[in-house]
Design goal:
The structure is a single chain. The chain has 490 residues and is α+β, with helices and mostly antiparallel strands. Helices cover 29% and strands 27% of the residues. The protein has twelve helices and 27 strands. The longest helix has 24 residues, at 312-335. It is globular and about 70 Å long. The two termini are 21 Å apart. Residues 2-329 form the FAD-binding domain. Keywords: FAD, Flavoprotein, Monooxygenase, Oxidoreductase. It comes from Actinocatenispora comari.
Length: 490
């Protein structure tokens, strides 16, 4: 029996596999496809995703292959990313096919097993685990099953989890093609009365062409090159001589979210938990961040450090994040329509985005740097991601998170007395902080804490403003590090 069976070897499933294996879990990933698709799919990694990769010491290969773009957008209106308070103030342009390859390589080095050509057809869970039946009639078992198998998730359906939302109101066509007569430069969401189109140069010799028309429902069946050519010509007045497609696809603005992210020993992450219009490139990134939130919690339960109720905090924390992504992509769809009223609204919103405070708020949301979990009051850092501050010994804060263990970051002049019984359960790092304030998305400068308890996902679970004050630390350790009652019976 595996500790965890994961359905789906996309970015979410692979990242979850890495997180669990790093914590010592035995992980099996089942993938319906027999091999990598070769489809380019999503186009980039946002700042928070790069940060979580950095937290595990695995960001460098992604940076080496990607191309930084210091701008994003909100419904086609430009957003500046270059002033975000992060080491990665940009979108890293890197196609999903490369992201999956790099994640799969890292997962393999950690001992994750990936079984391809394995389609989930049935599941049965009991008090001890989940039995998964495959398309070939074989079965595998795991103590837990996580569905990372996309918007049409078989795991979600078999678990009986609802997927409510809204149907599509538009159709976008996408083609990775070659062009005989390309435009002089990249074209992004150029609007006409008939829709909008984009022509983006990606890797040498080929382009990504996208068209969008509102009021047109997506059709069934594969997209043809002739369909893309006709739609592009209708909107742009030319097809730019497109030919030799590598990949053709269509998508709409269907937006749905799972009613719950956990049903007993079955959990959901990524598109299996939420789908939406791909405005701002948030889907892949949200899924990877789901995996990082879930992985350390599931590992703690597997080790016996926490009761299964810790897994309920995964839904409590990530479901609102997914709901917000659905809301902001719906807003972007509404702002992208082509009537005179919407054009006037776009002009108004563009003027607002020109104000730094508005730009920073939207950029923080799209990049997920502003995510704050409801972990209690006190210091403004609590619930937010720890900034990657420089430490006096030459290390950075995120390097302390490479082992995926909780960290007590102690920044006072005198080392903090760790509460009795917790010394081996948390990594205690004592270092004076040179910075009096830390800069956070949206909030701006906040006082540097005297000490902070940082969860393995990089979010602050407790912080104190006063040197030597440990009020609330015991409770935070018992909630997020190890539950004493369980440890006593280990």
């Amino acid at each position: 029996m595996a500790d965890v069976v994961i359905a789906g070897a996309g970015p979410t499933g692979l990242m979850l596999g890495c997180e669990l294996a790093l914590a010592g879990a035995d992980v099996l990933i089942l993938e319906r496809r027999t091999g990598p698709t070769g489809e380019s799919r999503a186009g980039g990694l946002h700042a928070r995703t790069l940060e979580v990769l950095d937290q595990r010491g695995m960001v460098e290969p992604f940076l080496a292959e990607g191309r930084p773009l210091p701008a994003g957008h909100f419904s086609g209106l430009p957003l500046r990313l270059d002033d975000l308070p992060t080491r990665y103030p940009y979108l890293l342009v890197l196609l999903q096919a490369h992201v999956e390859r790099l994640l799969a390589e890292h997962a393999t080095t950690l001992g994750v097993s990936i079984r391809r050509g394995a389609e989930v057809t049935e599941l049965r869970q009991d008090a001890d685990g989940v039995t998964v039946t495959l398309g070939d009639g074989g079965t595998v078992t795991g103590r837990y099953l996580v569905g990372c198998d996309g918007g049409r998730s078989v795991v979600r359906h078999l678990a009986g989890i609802g997927y409510a939302g809204t149907d599509a109101t538009l159709t976008s066509l996408l083609g990775d093609v070659e062009l005989a007569d390309p435009p002089a430069g990249n074209v992004f969401q150029r609007r006409t009365a008939r829709g909008d189109y984009s022509v983006l140069g990606f890797e040498a010799g080929w382009y990504r062409v996208m068209t969008t028309q509102t009021g047109v429902r997506p059709q069934d069946g594969p997209v043809t090159l002739d369909q893309l050519r006709a739609t592009l010509t209708e909107i742009a007045g030319t097809d730019f001589g497109l030919h030799s497609p590598r990949w053709l696809s269509r998508y709409g603005d269907t937006a749905r979210q799972a009613d719950r992210y956990r049903q007993g020993r079955v959990l959901l992450a990524g598109d299996a938990a939420h789908i939406h219009y791909p405005a701002g490139g948030q889907g892949l990134n949200t899924g990877v961040q789901d995996a990082v939130n879930l992985g350390w919690k599931l590992a703690a339960v597997l080790r016996g450090d926490a009761a299964e109720t810790l897994l309920d905090t995964y839904h409590e924390e990530r479901h609102p994040v997914g709901a917000r992504v659905l809301d902001n992509t719906r807003a972007q769809v509404a702002l992208g329509r082509y009537d005179a009223q919407t054009e006037a609204l776009r002009a108004t919103v563009a003027g607002m985005i020109a104000q730094p405070a508005v730009n920073d708020q939207l950029a923080g949301m799209v990049t997920a740097l502003d995510v704050a979990y409801p972990l209690g009051g006190g210091h403004p850092l609590v619930g937010r991601r720890l900034p990657d501050v420089d430490l006096p010994d030459g290390r950075r804060a995120y390097q302390l998170l490479h082992p995926a263990r909780p960290v007590l970051l102690d920044l006072g002049a005198t080392p903090l007395a760790v509460p009795e019984g917790w010394a081996g359960a948390v990594d205690h790092m004592h270092a004076r902080s040179a910075a009096a304030t830390w800069r956070l998305p949206v909030l701006g400068a906040v006082p540097a804490p005297a000490a902070a308890l940082v969860r393995p996902d990089g979010h602050v679970a407790w912080a104190s403003s006063t040197e030597g004050d440990t009020t609330g630390l015991d409770a935070a350790l018992a909630t997020w590090v190890r539950q004493p009652a369980l440890a006593a019976h280990a």
